[in-house]
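User: Before I run my own analysis I want an independent prediction to cross-check against. Here's the chain; please return only the structure tokens and, at the end, one sentence I can use as a sanity check.
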Amino acid sequence: MNTRLLQADSETLAPRSPFSRKAVRSLRTLLRATGVCLYHLGLARPIINLSPVRTRTLLYHAVEDQPGSHTAGLGMSISPEAFARHLDYYQQHYNILSMKDLVQGKVCPRTAVLTFDDGYASVGENAVPALEKRGIPATVYLIGKAVNGGMVWVNQLNHALNRHPQVTMNLINSLPGLANVARENVIHHVQTTFPPQMIEQLMMRLEQSLPPAANANQLFLTPDQIRELKTRGISFGFHSNDHYNLRLCSEQTLRQQLDSSGIDALLDSRTFAYPFGYCGDREADRLEARGFQKTMLVQEDTPHPRRSNLMRSEPVGRSAAQVFAQLEVEEPVMLWLRGALA
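Assistant: Structure tokens:
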């Protein structure tokens, strides 16, 4: 489970970093191994207590044993079994708050908050029962198009690459800017370079060239399911209408993407998760003007960080030791290095 495929490059320590990507990967591997050893030495709680005021905001996507063609390969699925182990670790070591509590300024040591992006149906099926069992609240960030029965372009393109690779790659390689892009880099290239108009043109070409996807309507939570989950400790925030890279949107398209009126009746958290984590001052200004109280990031990516920003970590390990190593050793050290080298 690793959405670095879809997010901004997290291998970079800082602009013009003297470290190569290979060196950064090696350093991360060393830090993870060190963290696992510290956990097994019984040092988890003392190390966590070194930063009691830091909020650990945790990011998940799909919770499923067998990812389907729309999610397989995106690196954003976690098995229900591994997810349950994560929850047990959080419950043992942190004070888990709801997003509402956090927005209202509730303070406690070792705070953790759980979030899910995109609104996959597997969250309701597999994650919520585990959360309910432990009395843990969470917030799900919804995509307007998905809630209203549409397919998000990332999943649509991923399905095409998984189920119809030859036809899809022939089409992609015939398009300007995609002639020499390898299959494994297609989605990252599209999300980082294509404005919304080009994405829609690509999706239209795919729909004309490929048969309809089966079971696509089961991928995301429906309005009825969302309303039911709201009675079970789950709150819902906004994740844009089409999951475009907001930095590549025109001013008019950005207004459309940040307009939550189409699903406002289902939202009960005035918070926002940036698609892919990409954001800048323009996007942050527009969200503040619309009254969003907190904004979810996946890396420190705004030119001028805001008090409303919440940095999120996406736990990728299967064991409690691996989650501890990532949250309490690897990521804090890498963040410190980025600041020191900036």
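Sanity check: The chain has 14 helices and ten strands.
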